[in-house]
Amino acid sequence: MSSEKRRNRHPKAEQNHTFQIEVDGKKIVARAGQTIAEAILDNGLKVFRRTRNGAPRSFYCGMGVCYECRMIVNGAPNVRTCMTPATPGCKVVSQDESLMKVEW
Ligand code: FES
After folding, report:
1. Per-residue DSSP letter, 59
2. CB 98 within 8 Å of CB 50
3. What is the C-alpha separation between 96 and 93, in angstroms, rounded?
4. How far is the CA of 65 from the centre of ligand 1 (A)?
5. Tell me, what's the pLDDT at 5?
6. Which is the closest atom of ligand 1 to the Cα of 83?
7. CB-based contact 85:95 (threshold 8 Å)
8. For residue 80, which atom of ligand 1 is closest to its CA?
9. Hey, which bits of 1-104 come out as E strands?
10. pTM assigned to the model
11. What's the burial of 62, exposed, middle or buried (CB within 10 Å: 0-12/13-18/19+)?
12. Which range is least confidently modeled, 10-14, 63-67, 76-80?
């Protein structure tokens, strides 16, 4: 078996695969296996959403509990980006809750 074939079979090989995702209209690089939140933080972005009062919010727990990382992903609001894998070409938008109509 050639060394290249052996390298591609290694579990770490997939982590070297990169692709682009779009965050607020800006293309950023993500690695295979990363969550959207990890890709955003790796690219130096910090604000994930804004509250109804306009306060900026960011990633906090990283395990799906606090919901601070929720964003609009491919048109779906309130997606926890710390729990959602980045996929090639996905479109992510910061969630501005001052503009959202909330019904209780
Ligand atoms: S960072 Fe807490 S749910 Fe995502």
Report:
1. -
2. yes
3. 9
4. 6
5. 61
6. 4
7. no
8. 4
9. 18-23, 26-31, 49-50, 56-57, 70-73, 76-80, 91-93, 95-96
10. 0.82
11. middle
12. 10-14
* 63 Cα to the center of ligand 1, angstroms: 6
Q: For 34-51, how does the pLDDT look when each residue is reduced to its tens digit (9 = 90+)?
A: 999 999 999 999 999 999
Pocket test for ligand 1, best of 41, 68, 73 (most atoms within 8 A of CB): 68
CA of 49 relative to ligand 1 center, distance in Å:
12
Counting atoms of ligand 1 from 1, which one is nearest the CA of 66? 2
CA–CA distance from 89 to each of 17, 79, 94 (Å)?
A: 14, 16, 16
Residue 58 C-alpha to ligand 1 middle, in angstroms?
A: 9
Residue 76 confidence (pLDDT): 96
Contacts of 17 (CB under 8 A, 6+ apart): 31, 32
Is residue 72 within a helix (H) or strand (E), and if so which, with residue range? Answer: strand 70-73
Cβ of 78 below 6 Å from ligand 1: no
Which domains does the chain carry?
18-96 (3.10.20.440)
